[in-house]
Amino acid sequence: MEPTLLGRRAFLSFLGCAVLSRPNSAIAQQWIRPRTVGVLMGFARDADTQARAKAFEKGLEKEGWTIGKDLRIEYRFSGGDVKRMEAIAQEFVKLNPDCLLGQSTPVVEALVQATRTIPIVFVAVADPIGSKFVASMARPGGNVTGFTIIQPSMTAKYVSMLREIVPRLARVAFMYNPDSATGKVFLPSFFDAAKAYKIEATTIQVQNADEIELGITNLAATPDVGLIIVPDNFVIVHRELIISLTARYRIPAIYPYRYFTEAGGFLSYGVDAVDLFERASVYVSRILRGANPGELPVQAPTKFELVINLKTAQDLGLTIPKVLLAGADLLIQ
Fold first, then answer.
1. pTM of the model
2. What is the enclosing helix (H) or strand (E) of 102?
3. End-to-end CA distance of the chain, in Å?
């Protein structure tokens, strides 16, 4: 009888341990449930967007995530098409990811219109308050937070740089898409800087390729001119046309991102977009682990880069000041 009783006790003890272990097992399974992040890029899939995606993934791996194991990333590329952005945003809502990452103002606008519950982290947005994505920079509120691109006062620096490069600069133009909220953010500092330097300021409003060509052609009709391009989806999508026209008419232009200069543009100064994506990975990771996006403050850029295309400068007949050359992060020969 004794061995049988002992066997029953052992069996009951084992059964009790198994029952008690079930909740812990369920919690463990829930903890390791793969998370899903939807990423909507404002442009087409190319080397630049791929570099940003790599930086984002690198940052997530630093945060302890293993992509393909406990984290799945769904990438979508809109090619600058607003209708496609809206369609993809709806697609993401059906997918119901744990977090969304959106690049550019029109992309985030599409995501915000699609959902007010799924957490959204933005990158490359100029005016998150004016675009009504967040209530304030310190306490965004709602389901949106992220990283801005450049300060509105940056256009004043662009005017200053053009004046250094073109000593007899008499007229500077600011190209932007009037349908976009991004371009308008930079207008006040542009006009103030031009006035301070006693330079004529003008705007070129563009909504299609024909208006881009007409605007640059008209600008080239007067001597000693310069052009400023700000980070806006429309002009970024049409960057090859802008670069070719400024080369044809020998107009020095300043651009917001290095890929303009790498493609043959004269000079670019702005936020390091790749770094911005890596920084965004930290916020996404925190949200995946339970943080409230509405309590994560919107962050300004911390890393900027100056890139000068020396070949283009030579073609334009320009001499770059030594101060600018010394401060450049990259000189393209």
1. 0.83
2. strand 99-103
3. 93
